[in-house]
Design goal:
By secondary structure, this protein is mainly alpha-helical. It has a domain of 73 residues. It is built from 18 helices and no strands. α14 packs parallel to α16.
Length: 355
Amino acid sequence: MSTDNSDQNGAALEDRLIAGYSRTSDFLLKGKDLLKEAEDLPIEHKNRLPEFTGQWSKDNVESHVNELERIIREPKVAQSEDRLKEIGVSEEKIDTIKRDILQNYSEIDKLAGEYEELHDEFSTYVEFLVEDDILVDKLREKGPTQTRHHIEIDNKAKYQNLTDLDNLPRDLKKTFFREVFLNERSIDEVQDLDGWIDTLEGYGIEVEFADDISQFIENCETTVSRARTLRNEYGYSEAKVKEWIDGLNVAEAKNELSKRIDQAGQERERLQRELEEYCELMGRDVPDISEVPELKEEVSNLYDDLLEKIGANGEKLLEFLLGKSNELPEDQETEELLDTLEQVRPLLQRRLERE
């Protein structure tokens, strides 16, 4: 039994040795053929031939021989592959590109050079071209020449302006750079956002960038617009608007200003009614005023003029007769009451004539 096992082990070893010798012979023959072919290569290609530095295992030797074959028998393809690797394209992605495309090394080199020029000028802002497979996908679809034209940036100043914006974090500018490049967003929109953020921070708003960029942009634009409405349409000062929203985030400020606009509209209607009322009572033309602070001041001035004209008792009596108060002037004799009525009579006549 032992003898049988020894015979079987010996036979298996012999088979492995024969197979190993055969495989080694294949490697030697292929290696000799490749070295002979390499003699005809230009010196720059010969300098690119790799040396074997790994352990002498079957897999390592086979990998080395295959690499030699790739460089010697397809030098332009090998150059193109190496050139693409230099700009960050992975070997896995390179394997998806057809060999006939990679044969055009001169255009591949120009394409890589165009990318390197962009990277020198815009650094990590253009890395999405490789990281998002935009360059490789276009290369597979259109070839190196059209891909080079596709990634060219004609108006570099426009993109430089984007990278120089002061109020946007770098990660967000990189996102916008990509979107502008792919015509998914306009540079004007990005510059507007930078200006809105500057305005919001001037009001003391805490600007926190959200994952939902579109909603964030809408919030910024709406908040700035509402602040502008309160200032331009309703006449509130910048300091007053800041008082309302200082310390809020963008979404909170947007909601707060919405409430303030509603209140300002109601306040303006009330003050304009009072203004008309006082002017008609006093026989004056109604001034054309729409800003709330100015309306408040004008109504206050008219009120003071009215008090000066009819006195405190006259004002109380007038408010009583107009239904604004349920209290009559106190401690008045009949003669004094008649004198007060005489003072407010013209005012009541104008009011009745208006109604």
